[in-house]
């Protein structure tokens, strides 16, 4: 009787065991996706989980928490090489995991600041870096990257959790810390949106707001098979470089303006600004802003349609109903003609936001502001440090 199938199977699993042993990593992926919730993970009992970890000398990686570790050394080396790290640089790494990229960054930079929310990862990271004799150059911050204030850094190099891509990029490019570049491994679809240009089907508000303050360069695609555990999507590496000079525009005003324009990006600007609700909101803001200039407000301020996406055009809040009742039809019509007149005279009435460049959008916003039409009533200097106010998508 032949036992070859059994021998092949035994040899196959022996290879898997050896490879995992070399990585010092065992993986049990979660079956859920979306926002991480510890109650959704297997082995809810901490004692049971700790017992298993002690027995098997491993810990779990959760897809739902964005824990996908890049294991391909060739790709890791390429990321470090394209980052152009100087021996005197301090590199910020967000989500270092078990340190596959961290060790290579420490070999190239003077210092690495790693922000990691998972204490288990931090323990493994410290142990691994110490084994390489690089612990003096590593500063680990065990906190949520979206809540912690970053120390000074020169570069960002990171395989970031996909779930925080947009707010994290906002925190970086609109933050207080100046830096040369950010080399980021992102979900491929998200990277395409970030790289989109006017006329592209993926062109969106994300690209518009990032390109206002930074340039984005595509580096390479990375297959999902290069990660452990394997995600459902491929990835891409991009480099974001802050522009040396920023446009002379109030960022709060720009943010509210682009939100209005891209609520329905394939709708003409004329159709968007002719809506009764939008005209009423802009008229209300025009009056509020005028009053604020004469008498700085001490109470609540109003903002132009903070969450407007074009879906609730016929729904009025109590405040809007009150304002509408005190506004005559003649006043509304005159203000609407003023808006349409600006769009028509400047040639934007029939244009769609998805095909308009940043330069043209800046020009249109300037024309509106010069005519006393505003999208945000806080008339103040640019606030690059307010990451939440600069949220992109």
UniProtKB/TrEMBL annotation:
<keyword id="KW-0694">RNA-binding</keyword>
<feature type="binding site">
    <location>
        <position position="70"/>
    </location>
    <ligand>
        <name>S-adenosyl-L-methionine</name>
    </ligand>
</feature>
<keyword id="KW-0949">S-adenosyl-L-methionine</keyword>
<comment type="similarity">
    <text>Belongs to the class I-like SAM-binding methyltransferase superfamily. rRNA adenine N(6)-methyltransferase family.</text>
</comment>
<dbReference type="Pfam" id="PF00398">
    <property type="entry name" value="RrnaAD"/>
</dbReference>
<dbReference type="GO" id="GO:0005739">
    <property type="term" value="C:mitochondrion"/>
</dbReference>
<feature type="binding site">
    <location>
        <position position="116"/>
    </location>
    <ligand>
        <name>S-adenosyl-L-methionine</name>
    </ligand>
</feature>
<dbReference type="InterPro" id="IPR001737">
    <property type="entry name" value="KsgA/Erm"/>
</dbReference>
<feature type="binding site">
    <location>
        <position position="95"/>
    </location>
    <ligand>
        <name>S-adenosyl-L-methionine</name>
    </ligand>
</feature>
<dbReference type="InterPro" id="IPR020596">
    <property type="entry name" value="rRNA_Ade_Mease_Trfase_CS"/>
</dbReference>
<keyword id="KW-0489">Methyltransferase</keyword>
<feature type="binding site">
    <location>
        <position position="144"/>
    </location>
    <ligand>
        <name>S-adenosyl-L-methionine</name>
    </ligand>
</feature>
<dbReference type="InterPro" id="IPR020598">
    <property type="entry name" value="rRNA_Ade_methylase_Trfase_N"/>
</dbReference>
<keyword id="KW-0698">rRNA processing</keyword>
<keyword id="KW-0808">Transferase</keyword>
<feature type="binding site">
    <location>
        <position position="159"/>
    </location>
    <ligand>
        <name>S-adenosyl-L-methionine</name>
    </ligand>
</feature>
<dbReference type="InterPro" id="IPR029063">
    <property type="entry name" value="SAM-dependent_MTases_sf"/>
</dbReference>
<dbReference type="GO" id="GO:0003723">
    <property type="term" value="F:RNA binding"/>
</dbReference>
<feature type="binding site">
    <location>
        <position position="68"/>
    </location>
    <ligand>
        <name>S-adenosyl-L-methionine</name>
    </ligand>
</feature>
<dbReference type="GO" id="GO:0000179">
    <property type="term" value="F:rRNA (adenine-N6,N6-)-dimethyltransferase activity"/>
</dbReference>
<feature type="domain" description="Ribosomal RNA adenine methylase transferase N-terminal">
    <location>
        <begin position="75"/>
        <end position="244"/>
    </location>
</feature>
<dbReference type="InterPro" id="IPR011530">
    <property type="entry name" value="rRNA_adenine_dimethylase"/>
</dbReference>
<protein>
    <recommendedName>
        <fullName>rRNA adenine N(6)-methyltransferase</fullName>
        <ecNumber>2.1.1.-</ecNumber>
    </recommendedName>
</protein>
């Amino acid at each position: 009787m032949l036992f070859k199938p059994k021998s092949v199977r035994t040899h196959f699993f022996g290879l898997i065991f050896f490879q995992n042993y070399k990585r010092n990593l065992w993986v049990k992926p979660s079956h859920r996706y979306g926002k991480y919730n510890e109650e959704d993970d297997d082995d809810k009992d901490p004692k049971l989980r700790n017992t298993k970890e002690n027995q098997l000398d491993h810990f779990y990686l959760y897809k739902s928490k964005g824990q996908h570790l890049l294991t391909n050394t060739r790709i890791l080396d390429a990321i470090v090489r394209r980052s152009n790290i100087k021996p005197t640089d301090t590199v910020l790494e967000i989500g270092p995991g078990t340190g596959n990229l961290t060790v290579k960054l420490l070999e190239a930079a003077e210092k690495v600041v790693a922000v990691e929310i998972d204490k288990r990862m931090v323990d493994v990271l410290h142990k691994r870096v110490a084994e390489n004799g690089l612990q003096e150059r590593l500063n680990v911050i065990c906190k949520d990257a979206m809540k912690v204030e970053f120390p000074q850094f020169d570069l960002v190099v990171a395989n970031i959790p996909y779930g925080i891509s947009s707010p994290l990029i906002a925190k970086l490019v609109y933050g207080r810390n100046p830096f040369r570049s950010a080399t980021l491994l992102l979900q491929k679809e998200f990277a395409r949106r970030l790289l989109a240009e006017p006329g592209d089907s993926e062109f969106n508000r994300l690209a518009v707001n990032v390109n206002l303050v930074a340039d984005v360069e595509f580096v390479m695609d990375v297959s999902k098979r290069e990660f452990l555990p394997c995600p459902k999507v491929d990835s891409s590496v991009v480099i974001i470089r802050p522009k040396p000079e920023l446009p002379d525009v109030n960022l709060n005003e720009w943010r509210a303006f682009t939100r209005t324009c891209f609520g329905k990006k394939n709708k003409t600007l004329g159709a968007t600004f002719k809506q009764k609700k939008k005209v009423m909101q802009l008229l209300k803001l025009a009056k509020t802003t005028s009053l604020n200039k004469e008498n700085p407000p001490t109470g609540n301020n109003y903002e132009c349609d903070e969450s407007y996406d074009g879906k609730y055009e016929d729904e009025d809040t109590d405040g809007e109903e009150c304002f509408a009742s005190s506004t005559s039809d003649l006043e509304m019509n005159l203000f609407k003609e003023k808006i349409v007149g600006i769009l028509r005279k400047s040639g934007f009435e029939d244009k769609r936001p998805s095909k308009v460049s940043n330069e043209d959008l800046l020009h249109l916003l300037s024309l509106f502001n010069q005519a006393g039409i505003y999208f945000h009533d806080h008339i103040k200097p640019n606030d690059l440090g307010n990451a939440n106010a600069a949220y992109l998508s």
